[in-house]
Amino acid sequence: MGVVSPTIDKPDQFEDMHWGYSPSSGSVQLLNLLPPGEAYVTPHNSGALGQIWETHHREFYNFINDREHVHILEIGGGSGNLARHALSSDKKFKWTIVDPGMYDVITDERVSQMNTMFEEFTPSGQFDAIIHSHVLEHTYSPREFLSKIHGLLYAAGTHYISIPNMRHGLENGFSNTLNFEHTYYIDECILEYLLAQSGFEILSKKINPHSIFMSCVKSKMQVFHAPRFDHAVELFSNYTTQLEAQITDILTKLQNRRCYLFGAHIFSQMLLTMGLDQDQVVSVLDHDVSKHGKRLYGSQLLVTSPELIEDYPIIVRCGIYTDEITEALLLNNPAVEII
């Protein structure tokens, strides 16, 4: 879901996404899972750039900061954006980040960074807070993931979660909602069920179009029948229909002209695999300078800066980030045509 060096000689790998649902629960999930080592070869800096993500990190930190914590474990915090909010204070704490794709190094002695998968992480003790943001939807075994967190928390410890608002994403046809990284549908009620099943009691929650925040503490394991989530199948069916219709609309507006694609990410990969001819595309634009000069995986397209464009329309279909990206592009070049 990102970029590779244009000189890499290893061939790209392709596999169709086959989706299914559970007749007993109604939940939707990807049937053929890629080995994590292949799906996450290089980090794609998701969550590192843009005003929406900046707001998310600030609001999630404020959500966490309601309680005092001394020893914190953050799972998947490779960008360091969340930890930096904590470092802006003079509080004394120990913040441990576990992420196999570290792409920024924090030198503050209060932070330690472990370049490994959480599933392979073996700490020497427990934590009074465990945090993960937009990680749970990537896990292949969410119950085991939550069970390990339960075991690593002190009895009075707090568990903080942020997940993407998938219901909002599917309702609006966002192509980053479900894919070969976000391999199963999870929303507020499914998350509540998984947490209760894993021995957590919810303290508070906050929901906005981008994310769902929850905080919880350990409780006694509950025994109950799983609720049904039939709404997931209908949401997914409407999502795929809307996705196909929107891509047809984009191709109609484009009328065989050459163009730019915005986003060296799943947004562009989805358009290319569902009908957009890469021969029409000049290059893929992205604000992340670390991606410039590299190749969008699954294509022969190079990534370039939005500040170095010629007079071609730009296709921007980037989910909840579309308006923010469009505004930035028009600020740079008010005459550019945005499709």
Any overview of this molecule?
With 339 residues, this protein is of the alpha/beta class. The chain folds into 2 domains: 229 residues, Vaccinia Virus protein VP39 (Rossmann fold, 3-Layer(aba) Sandwich); 77 residues, NAD(P)-binding Rossmann-like Domain (Rossmann fold), CATH 3.40.50. The mean pLDDT is 90.
How would the blueprint of this fold be written?
Blueprint: E1 3-4, E2 19-21, E3 28-30, H1 36-39, H2 51-64, E4 71-75, H3 81-87, E5 94-98, E6 111-114, E7 127-133, H4 142-152, E8 153-164, H5 166-171, H6 188-197, E9 200-207, E10 211-218, H7 231-254, E11 259-262, H8 266-273, E12 281-285, E13 295-296, E14 303-304, E15 314-315, H9 322-332
Parallel strand pairs: 4-5, 4-7, 5-6, 7-8, 11-12, 11-15, 12-14
Antiparallel strand pairs: 1-13, 2-3, 8-10, 9-10
Helix pairs in contact: 2-3
Low-confidence stretches: none
Rg calc: 21 Å
Determine the N-to-C terminus distance. 22 Å
CATH superfamily of the largest domain: Vaccinia Virus protein VP39
- Number of separate strands: 15
Strand order of the main beta sheet, please?
6-5-4-7-8-10-9
Tally of DSSP helical segments? 9
Residue fraction in strands: 15-25%
Based on secondary structure, the structural category is: alpha/beta
The CATH architecture category of the largest domain equals 3-Layer(aba) Sandwich
CATH class term of the largest domain: Alpha Beta
What best-fitting shape do the alpha-carbon axes yield?
A: globular
Q: What's the order of the H and E elements?
A: EEEHHEHEEEHEHHEEHEHEEEEH
Helix content: 25-40%
Total individual domains:
2
